[in-house]
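Ticket reopened. Same input as before:
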Amino acid sequence: MVVANAHVTATDFAVEDAHPDWCGGCGDFGILNSLRQALAKCGRPPYAVAVVSGIGCSAKTPHYLRTYGLHSLHGRALNVATGVKLANMQLTVIAIGGDGDGYGIGAGYFVNSGRRNLDITYFVNNNSVYGLTKGQASPTLRRGLKTKSMSEPAIQEGVNPIGLAIASGYTFVARGYAMAGPELVELMVKAIAHRGTALVDILQPCPVYNDLFTVDFYRGKDLETGVPRIYRLADEGYDGQVHDPANPDEVTQKKQAALLKSYEWGDRIPTGVLYQIELPTYEDAVIARRPSAATGPLYRETRNASNVEPLLEVFR
Ligand code: SF4
Ligand code: MG
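Engineering reply: fixed in the latest deploy. New output:
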């Protein structure tokens, strides 16, 4: 059992001599810094954390964190993270990557991860472009929009990650902003602490390829009022938490409210926890079948076994 350690600091999660090769002004820097601070606030020592990514600019994140880490395949962050968590339920498991990675090629895994409700956290650095491959439209760029890296406007509709997550069964669904450090740290801490599959979709400026969703855009510089577009739902009394999971009316009402808020995108853009519910996790069901899975990594059970079939049965 890993005990929370109040003396862990953000510096404990920094890799000496690692210099992220992101472009200047990239929102990925803010997300990385927030994640280090959030892990420290959670009091998890680095050896109790595993961070898994897919492919893309933001998928380089595990290289810059002094935790266990795996830079896996395009779109596969969630299913690799699922394997890590099932192999050792003592670990805090985090998946991280971009919107093209997670909501494009990884969309099937995204949906089925929500159905499972394993206790893992998914941070998506959402910049509406495929930054690593020169700025093509990603799944979150809406129809009719054209960034400076595109020759013509997008002719497909964009996916709504918040709506997709709620429909898929995610039990913690939030939106953050890369440049709002303290608020993002707070959201990440809540997401990691949540027992179940958590999504934080993080609006992430890509100054190189996306000239639409810039820092100035989120700051509302183009608006007559000059008021930032980004606002915090909690400041307006919004409560996305389901207080009685056994009450279907409350569950439906909270899902509807979250969906409505997720489409608010114009002069105002909401951030914060849109929806949260406490439900049994996938681990609960696995442990009910095999109680020893709760006490340590699976390899302890298999290293001397010549037959792993009974173990595989647990996951059928
Ligand atoms: Fe960041 Fe965009 Fe550069 Fe990628 S291309 S590192 S997302 S600024
Ligand atoms: Mg992207």
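Strands lie at 49-53, 68-71, 92-98, 121-126, 129-130, 136-137, 172-177, 198-203, 230-232, 269-276. Residues 22-23, 26, 28, 57, 127, 131, 206-209 surround iron/sulfur cluster (ligand 1) (CB under 6 Å). Please confirm and we'll close it.
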